[in-house]
Design a protein that fits this description.
Layout lengths: L2 E5 L5 E4 L3 E5 L17 E9 L4 E7 L3 E8 L1 E6 L4 E5 L2 E6 L4 E7 L6 E8 L9 E6 L9 E6 L7 E2 L5 E7 L4 E5 L5 E9 L2 E3 L2 E3 L4 E5 L3 E6 L3 E9 L4
Length: about 240
């Protein structure tokens, strides 16, 4: 029998630093909820808005797969591997922190905010060589269907990570119905509604609501309105 856990948008942690307005689905920084540390290997799901010209200075990470999905605006990235890039809506950035990396992230524009999702998942290999990957996807390939944006396989669609994880983005018109079939036995899925409303695995969700789904091989998504959805299929136990 399918099991679900719902995290409504207004129950997330919130930090407003003026230049940064951040919503935390899971415990992060000064937000700590013992019941919301992680979902499987999904450790962080941050919904950030960064003011024009502002950002995060150089800071370290290690042994984490970090996926960044810009929703609006342009994000400027620099790191200790020598990468200097701008990621925009339609791009997906993956950084394997591995044995250690430094990076910074700033709003590339001074006149408008940048909005992004930043996601951390525990890797299935520790202390790997740090790695940077950035891809640009065709937004039309997620119209009324799920577009794969992350996978474990460098030869598969999307960016790749050191984990048995598959991420998909879909933009659905009202009334559309789509089935998602899990790729690996024992995995769970965390669904995050970016915009609109949808019924996922029988549960109605609104914008910025999240839901963990376990103990199933497949489930259905019904678009109650025009909506955009992120699905993150991940192992429920760290290696």
């Amino acid at each position: 029998m399918v099991n679900t856990i719902i995290h409504k948008a207004d129950t997330r942690g919130h930090a407003d630093h003026g230049w940064l307005n951040a919503k935390h689905t899971f415990s992060f920084a000064n937000y700590h909820d013992p019941a919301r540390i992680h979902f499987g290997v999904l450790r962080v799901l941050n919904d950030d808005t960064v003011a024009g010209g502002k950002g995060f200075g150089m800071h370290p990470h290690d042994n984490m797969e970090i996926i960044t999905i810009p929703l609006e605006g342009d994000l400027e990235h620099k790191d200790s591997m020598g990468n200097s890039e701008v990621i925009r809506h339609g791009d997906i950035q993956v950084m394997s922190a591995g044995k250690g990396i430094l990076h910074s992230e700033f709003n590339h524009n001074t006149d408008k905010p940048v909005k992004l999702l930043q996601i951390w998942i525990f890797p299935n290999k520790k202390n790997v060589e740090p790695r940077y990957d950035q891809i640009t996807l065709n937004l039309n390939d997620r119209h009324n269907k799920l577009q794969q944006i992350v996978s474990p396989n460098p030869d598969d669609d999307g960016a790749w990570v050191h984990q048995d994880a598959w991420f998909h983005l879909g933009r659905f018109e009202k009334g559309n119905e789509t089935e998602y079939k899990l790729k690996m036995n024992g995995n769970g899925v965390y669904a995050f509604i970016i915009s609109g409303e949808a019924t996922v695995a029988g549960n109605k969700l609104g914008a910025r609501d999240g839901m963990g789904i376990t103990d199933t091989e497949a489930f259905t998504i019904n678009a109650e309105t025009d909506c955009e959805i992120l699905l993150m299929e991940i192992p429920m136990r760290a290696n």
